[in-house]
Amino acid sequence: MIQTMCWLCLPPPELTDPDPSDPRGQTDLSRRAFMHSARWGAGLSLSALIASHAHGQVDVGQSSNMRKLIPVETLEASARQQYRQTLSEAHTKGALAPDDYPQLQRLRAIANRLIPFTAQWNPDSRKWKWEVNLIGSNQLNAWCMPGGKIAFYTGILDQLKLTDDEVAMIMGHEMAHALREHARERMAKSKATGVGLSVASQLLGLGQLGDVAANMGTQLLTLKYGRDDETEADLVGLEIAARAGFKPEASVQLWKKMLSATGGGRGQPSFLSTHPSGNNRIQELEANLPKVANLYAQAIQSN
Q: Which of 29, 104, 118, 232 could anchor a disulfide with 60, C-beta 3.0 to 4.6 Å?
């Protein structure tokens, strides 16, 4: 899957057969997939609640109203169905990490720190049932579907030797795509253009678009975001991670690692093909570090 929809962006790639010498592939994977029902306010500290309502420090503008052409309930239902299918396929191949696998526990612990700071970017996310799972694959990838369905691939953790701060930047980036409803917006624009809808038919044909959304599960695995979406996800993810107490500078270090792993952008994973160039995104992140520095300092102080 060296192609991400971003979702760092990619379509979950084809799963590779587990290495017999790798304990990941030998672990009993019969357990049910973990579901983290992280609902707003559950177990949150007062400081987290206060910080979550603070105004965003990064400037990404308003979400497009075009996304409203796709019913959010239908899209999230499709995402849940596709997520279950992806996990089932991984399980069948012996590539789905069990709940007690250390790297998966690490990912879920990081997610638990980030989730309390997501609602300011999408109030509806308070109702999401976040899930985090780990799939054994050498692909450099991670993604978050609408409704908070997250998957990481072991390749991105192992090959880049990511620190917790760097993992938080990736996870925050992927969460941001879901929070800002980039998939919903992309699909709405694609369908509206594809069927040549006029303003009137858009209003009268919402049922048609709703039917289309019901069959969008596969598209969620192949959808590619635009560069503006990727930049927005970088910045929103940066702020979420900073509020959760992860070092903002890790965002820059992460993309330096990514550039190094991909030969400075040559032969890059396909998920990077829609991203801003490495140097440009590093410059953008560096320019926004001062905006979130105080948020990080407050998070460290409160902890």
A: 232
